[in-house]
Inverse folding.
């Protein structure tokens, strides 16, 4: 649960970092820094971040899981 709390806090502070991390992992780039990411990875990261920002009930849904 500690890792989940860290992810939730990161999503509050910087949803774009979380989005890019998920997108990089999905396309097989790992968690480390990558300098030349294809446009599809960057686009997917931004889509994920927008979904995180748009979901106003994000905290409400997860508060019971602590």
């Amino acid at each position: 649960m500690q890792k989940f709390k860290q992810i939730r806090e990161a999503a509050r502070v910087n949803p774009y970092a979380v989005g890019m991390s998920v997108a990089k992992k999905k396309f097989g780039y790992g968690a480390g820094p990558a300098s030349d990411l294809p446009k599809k990875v960057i686009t997917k990261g931004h889509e994920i971040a927008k979904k995180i920002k748009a979901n106003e009930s994000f905290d409400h849904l997860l508060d019971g899981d602590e």
About this structure: The longest helix spans residues 39-54. Confidence is low (pLDDT under 50) at residues 61-66. The chain is about 70% helix and 0% strand.
